């Protein structure tokens, strides 16, 4: 399986057909999708103004992959710092990670920083700005009645979103980030 850098190079290759470049953009999202695949793709489509036919505006593919790349660079730097810290902790005999209140305490999955279950509701700020906020945020305590949003800081206004199945998601009313999930009754 090709990595993010390979797919990014293919998106930037103007010699390839626009449809192939578009497919490679979507493949980049398999490696890094800060809101989850569908919500991140929707965000990039909106922010880079991707047309239904990418051949009409091939520059939109470049804008989208570059926004994703910049956000990923921030995330990779944070991952490298975390790995370095964990190596030092393990050398001192600490086998369990120390909970520092960072975003990893509420980690929704690999390459996902903030799950946005409703793909049409997500933060509107550029991805690098949102990723920076999340990386520098802290996870709310379990005592909090309504968890605070790590993206916009709001905590009192939430909306329910039903995924059409068994789950009801509590989303931040301001930016659409998932705050909690529960079973539908």
Question: What can you see in these coordinates?
Answer:
- The N and C termini lie far apart (40 Å).
- This protein has five helices and three strands.
- It has a three-stranded antiparallel β-sheet, with no helix packed on it.
- The radius of gyration is 18 Å and the shape is globular.
- The protein is mainly α.
- The mean pLDDT is 84.
- It has helices at residues 4-12, 18-31, 37-47, 58-91, 127-136, and strands at residues 158-162, 167-172, 178-183.
- The longest helix has 34 residues, at 58-91.
- The chain has one domain.
Give keywords.
globular, three-stranded antiparallel β-sheet, 185 residues
The computed structural class is mainly alpha
How many domain modules?
1
Strand arrangement, largest sheet?
1-2-3
Strand tally: 3
Tally of alpha and pi helices: 5
The coarse silhouette is: globular
Spans of at least 5 consecutive residues with low confidence: none
State the order of secondary-structure elements, H for helix, E for strand: HHHHHEEE
The main pleated sheet reads as: 3 strands, antiparallel
């Amino acid at each position: 399986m090709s990595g993010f850098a390979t797919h990014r190079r293919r998106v930037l290759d103007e010699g390839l057909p626009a449809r192939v470049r578009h497919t490679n953009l979507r493949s980049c999202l398999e490696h890094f999708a800060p809101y989850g695949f569908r919500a991140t793709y929707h965000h990039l489509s909106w922010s880079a103004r991707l047309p239904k036919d990418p051949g009409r505006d091939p520059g939109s593919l470049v804008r989208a992959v570059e926004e994703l790349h910049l956000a990923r660079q921030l995330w990779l730097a944070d991952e490298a710092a975390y790995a370095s810290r964990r190596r030092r902790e393990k050398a001192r005999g600490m086998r369990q990670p120390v909970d520092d209140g960072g975003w990893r305490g509420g980690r929704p999955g690999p390459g996902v920083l903030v799950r946005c279950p409703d793909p049409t509701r997500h933060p509107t700020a550029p991805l690098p700005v949102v990723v920076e906020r999340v990386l520098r945020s802290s996870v709310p305590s379990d005592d909090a009645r309504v968890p605070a949003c790590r993206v916009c800081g709001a905590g009192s206004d939430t909306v329910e979103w039903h995924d059409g199945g068994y789950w009801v998601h509590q989303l931040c009313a301001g930016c659409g980030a998932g705050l909690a999930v529960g079973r539908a009754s």
